[in-house]
Write a structure and sequence with these properties.
Layout: E1 2-6, E2 9-13, H1 15-27, H2 30-37, H3 41-55, E3 60-63, E4 66-69, H4 71-99, E5 103-109, H5 111-116, H6 118-128, E6 132-138, H7 141-149, E7 155-158, E8 167-182, E9 203-206, H8 212-223, E10 229-232, H9 236-244, E11 249-253, H10 254-257, E12 266-268, E13 276-285, H11 292-302
Parallel strand pairs: 5-6, 5-7, 9-10, 9-11
Antiparallel strand pairs: 1-2, 3-4, 7-13, 8-11, 8-12, 8-13
Helix pairs in contact: 1-2, 1-3, 1-4, 2-3
Length: 305
């Protein structure tokens, strides 16, 4: 149980209450918070009620069917995050005390680095430092930056270079975004470069709008003055299955359709502007105090693969 001093009176506040409070704030309501926390909605409501009772304020207000954070709630969000992060940091420091490197290393990653780059490096890190337990959370690049902002993860791996005033980033890996078709598609049999004009009537199967791959792809469409029909899917595997079924042409990272990933039913198309070369980045909040475990992992990523 943590203790907060309010007007010189010790107010006992359980960490689970703060965790539920932040989940409601971050996910916009009690139902979504309960789902994220894998709890019942009444349990989340009880945590909020207990926190409100101990702090002597209402943290949320009901406006129609929507739940919104109150002014007192807004005032304590930053402190609640700091308390949870501080407890987590305390655990890491205690676990590092014997070997210098240990504890839990939480990494958020967008789909490309999360699926194709990081798992092998994380396994290598755990072999080097058996007292470390790595944890990987995958989402699109926008969601990973949100998790960094909320201190839900220690490091992030994303497909874009985020604003330097808020984040410290360094290159993680090179990548190529490719345009591909199933072997059965007429364009798959073309030997030379395919003119842009021949793509005008094609449907494209793309990632969701918040993904870095999608943003890069839309930049290519704009530069070529294309306004194609698009099917949007949230998962690279679903994109591949839709392309394989003949629903359209796909655009994904080269890692997703390489023979090394088990795919042999696709052809990379030669089109002006493709492949689109980019860097993947490993990122942390500017000003974040890096533990020895985080620093050791960043050092490992700089070493040859």
């Amino acid at each position: 149980m943590a203790t907060i001093k309010v007007l010189d009176a010790d107010v006992p506040v359980k960490l689970e209450w703060l965790r539920s409070f932040l989940a409601v704030v971050d996910h916009g309501g009690f139902t979504k918070a309960a789902k994220i926390l894998r709890m019942s909605q009444p349990a989340v409501s009880t945590h909020i009620n207990e926190l409100e009772k101990n702090l002597g304020v209402e943290l949320f207000e009901k406006i129609g069917s929507r739940t919104r954070i109150s002014s007192p709630g807004e005032a304590i969000v930053g402190e609640a995050r700091a308390i949870l992060q501080g407890v987590r940091h305390l655990q890491v420091m205690a676990q590092e005390s014997e070997t210098g490197i240990g504890g839990v290393l939480a990494i958020g990653a967008s789909t490309t680095p999360g699926n194709y780059v990081l798992p092998r490096r994380m396994a290598e890190f755990e072999r080097l430092y058996p007292s470390v337990q790595t944890r990987l959370v995958i989402g699109n690049s926008a969601r990973i930056l949100e998790r960094l902002d909320a201190n839900e993860v220690d490091l992030g791996a994303v497909g874009l270079n985020p604003p330097a005033d808020r984040y410290v980033s360094r290159p993680l890996s090179d990548d190529e975004i490719v345009l591909f078709a199933p072997l059965s598609h007429p364009l798959a049999r073309r030997r030379g470069e395919i003119p842009i004009a021949e793509l005008a009537g094609q449907r494209f199967i793309l990632r969701e709008s918040d993904s870095a791959t999608r943003r890069t792809t839309e930049g290519w469409f704009t530069s070529r003055k294309l306004n194609p029909t698009v099917m949007e899917l949230g998962c690279p595997e679903t994109v591949k299955r839709a392309v394989a079924a003949g629903l359209g042409l796909g655009i994904l990272t080269k890692f997703a359709i390489s023979p090394e990933s088990g795919e042999r039913g696709f052809v990379v198309l030669r089109v002006p502007g493709f492949p689109i070369r980019r860097s993947l980045y490993i990122v942390h909040l500017r000003g974040k105090r890096l533990t020895r475990t985080m620093t050791a992992f960043l050092d490992l990523l700089k070493s040859p693969r």
